[in-house]
Amino acid sequence: MIMKKIFIKSLMIVTLIIGLQSCDERENYTDGAKVLDIVSSVQLNGKEAVINHLNGNISVSLSGDTNLSDVAFEAVFPNGVTVKPNSGTSLNLSSPVELSVSNGVTTRHYIVSAKLLPSKIAFLGDGATLNDVSDDDVKAAGLWAQQVYGDKFLYIPYNQLTDGALNGVNVLFYMYDKVGSTAQPAALLEHLNVISKFFVQGGKIVAGGHGTGIVEELGRDTSGLRNILGSGTGGANPDTWGVGFAGTALGSTISQGCQFYSDRKVYVINGGYKEDHNALWNLAPLDDPKFVSFSNGYDAEVVAAWDWAIDGQGFGGIVLWKPSGRFQGYIMTLGIGGMEWNMNDGRVNPYADNVRTIYKNSIDYLGSK
Known about the structure:
Layout: H1 2-28, E1 41-44, E2 47-48, E3 50-52, E4 57-62, E5 71-76, E6 82-84, E7 90-91, E8 97-102, E9 107-116, E10 120-125, H2 136-149, E11 153-157, E12 169-176, H3 186-189, H4 192-200, E13 204-209, H5 214-217, E14 228-229, E15 235-237, E16 241-245, H6 249-255, E17 260-262, E18 265-269, E19 272-274, E20 279-282, H7 290-298, E21 300-306, E22 315-316, E23 318-321, E24 330-334, H8 352-367
Protein name: DUF4960 domain-containing protein
Organism: Flavobacterium sufflavum
Domain DUF4960: 123-366
């Protein structure tokens, strides 16, 4: 009986050793990458595509003026894998294209497709026409957007906000500024349901100045932290004010093309008359690191603050509100008071291009979503 037990135990040890050796042998002689997730990433016209390995679909959303018959295709995959059509070529995505991926043993087929995003940039204002807009900063922002976006630009008065008016609109640009109050204009709030529907269904909004309050009106911001608000008449100030960007990929994207005076810091207004109409988020009550706490709590990423305060993370001046809950759209809020569009004393602001670059990058970034 004892001999039998010793024999069985010895047999088990030998079997285990052989099994481990077999495992090592299989690991040393693999037959290629897994076919299911063989493609690491795909870019179409430089935009990252969504890969659904389970269903074999690769999809991307491109700007409305994209020529789908000539879309640049780039794919990342392991050594020893071949992709047809070849990476680095162009695809005609006027209709879905089949992509074949092989590791030398098995071939996997994907269907690559693209959809065009709406292309219009709509600007909201209180005037019957853009030239009738009452506030000087709002009007200057609208005229700039009209010049930059040309045929893509659309002006919509508050009282003409309808679902139909937003057909074909990709990004809604809402700039608002008022002396004496930071509340949103009543004429706009009368049509808030239109903006809400647009946003809930995936529309994108760039909101500047006091217009950042739209994120609260829509119910997207429930933090109660947007409490650094200013609406005074302003006055002369000799200082040069700046914006500091978070050391993140998004911070780099939104500040790209600006003229930096220091690492991640740019000036936005020189000495002279300033309105100082801030609309910022006070992050002081949050746990450190505050940007992470804010992001985790509200699905929102702080992009920038005042230049002198960015490292302390105590404030949010430019914030990206990501899709969250029932809200499928994005909002970029820019509430740093120094980012004025028109100088009340008539001077030339040498840093005006930084302000316009930040806004354009914000509009274009959301436009690509």
